[in-house]
Amino acid sequence: MTQKFKVGDRVRVVDNQKITIGKIDVITNYDERCRIITNNEIFWTDIKCLAPAPALVKVPAVVDKFLKTDADGYTIYDRMAQLIVVNDGDHYYLEESAVENEVLSREEALEVINYAHEAKCEDLLQLINGYEVEKEPLYYVRLPHFGYVTNRMDYTLSQSKTDAIALTESRIKAIDERYWQFAVPEEGK
């Protein structure tokens, strides 16, 4: 039984002794071929040459920010190499250069370093095939006897949850550190 793929699926293509990862753009039913889009090419291949792509590595938002920033002339591949060096135990250069070149704040640089220390080297190598950014959990702030915090101009508190605004932990603490004790996780998201 062959794997059923659909348009939009990430797949691994084994064609001409070359393995690439791409996304299915078009599938033709009459000759079982599909068009694949990768980072730098578009090509047609037989469906028999496809296998499911490996799962994407999940990274925190600060790591995504670090990888995508090119303020100091580094490419995403240079950044991935820096993470692998940190994983190997040398974090001084990443911390100093990221802060000095205003790529990250010192706290953000330490978060990136902690991620790289804790990550498996294989996961860091898989970043080249793509990654997913972890979504920060969202919370409502429900103050006792007052209600939920809203983002309305005419009233800032409401008894109705539909008026409440979902915020991240860092945003809640930025408004007022004391609000964090009243944070309630957003359900169903």
Question: What would you note in describing this structure?
Answer:
With 189 residues, the protein is of the alpha+beta class. The protein has three domains: 10-52; 57-133, no CATH class; 139-185, no CATH class. 29% of the residues lie in helices and 26% in strands. It has six helices and eleven strands. It has helices at 61-68, 76-87, 92-100, 106-118, 121-126, 169-175; strands at residues 10-15, 18-28, 33-37, 42-46, 50-52, 57-59, 131-133, 139-143, 147-149, 157-158, 183-185. The strands form three sheets. The chain has a five-stranded antiparallel β-sheet, with no helix packed on it. Strand 9 (147-149) and strand 10 (157-158) form a beta hairpin. Helix 3 packs antiparallel against helix 4. It is flat, with a radius of gyration of 22 Å.
List keywords for this structure.
11 strands; 26% strand; single chain; DUF1642; four-stranded antiparallel beta sheet; DUF1642 domain-containing protein; 189 residues; 6 helices
